[in-house]
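Ticket #4471: structure export looks truncated?
Reporter: QA, pipeline team
Priority: medium

Steps to reproduce: submit the single chain below to the structure queue and open the exported record.
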Amino acid sequence: MVAGFQSFPLKPMLLALLIPLVYSLCKVRKKDRKELKPILLISLCSVGTVIFYGITYYLSNYLGAFGTLFGYSIGKFILFVLLPMATIFYIERWPAKKIFSELGVKKAGIGKSVLYGLLVAVVTIIITIFVSVRADFDLTYRTIMFFEAFTEEFFFRGFLFLYLAKKTNRKVAYATSILGFILIHPQHFISPFLISTITQGILMTIVADKTDNVVGPWIGHGLNRFVPPMIKMFFA
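Actual output as written to the record:
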């Protein structure tokens, strides 16, 4: 496996799903079941992402040494993009274009989103440079990981924030998105890099909220994967 693809389970993310589930149970107690089904399906989709995350490692190994990066990225795209899209289609019967738009992949607000995403990137890059000890830089690896960052932003800022907020409320969506993002990185729990992860999770969610767009968070997230190791390589 390529360095950085160690098998860190996503199981801790299941804790974040308790937030919308508790919200849905409160709805039931109040005899209001209108939004119960979508919330349960959102949670079920997220559980599926956790259960089937092993597909990323299977595809990485199946495609061989040259395709390891691509196999991992394809697996992430299936679980973090296609699965949420299929879930929303089942709930709403929206076409793909509308699903992307509702989850923040659109032209509207893109300028402000990119600007805010870049500003957040400056903050997270500075933090990452100080808390990370790695100085290796592989252009191919970092480029692919820049684009792969889209999958996590689509899932956490699009699916578990913008869409979940429509089905619950902004407080539930904020808590679920941010906590979920932090908990899928258990490899950082005992590392100073956790500071960067928490900062990124909070600020990128705010950007998505203020702009209704996830393009900026994607670019900011991708740059945080690309720039720090490049800078540390030059100063190593």
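Status: closed, not a bug. The export was complete when the record was re-opened. Leaving a note from the reviewer for reference: Residues 1-8 have pLDDT under 50 and may be disordered.
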